[in-house]
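Reply to dn_fold:

You asked what the input looked like. This is it:
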Amino acid sequence: MKQLSLAILSLFIYFHVHAKTASFSCLKLTESIAFIDTIRSPISIQLYPNPSSNWLFIKHPMVTNKQAHIIITTLSGNLVQKINTKPQSQQTIINISHLPTGMYLVTWINGVEAGTARLSKE
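and this is what came back:
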């Protein structure tokens, strides 16, 4: 059930960032279904160190297309940072020293797969 919740959350975050409308609820049902069909099961990403204060290392699947990126959001869904990942990489390093202390969601997405993990920022 937890994996399903994270999958739905990953889809919502991706849609929220990429949609032309302001929120998921503004989309037509057919558009939502078509989008959900393009994302496969959630994948696992690893964040370390976690908790972290300065640099965050994110281990993710091999980037095989130029559209893969990482999205950092607050727990309420506000976009904090969007980072494009390098092609052929399996790890991304991000400076998070500017973020306020708190909990965040880190989502890696490539348009076909998505994975989300919680980050504790000290």
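Helices lie at 2-18, 29-38.
Hope that clears it up.
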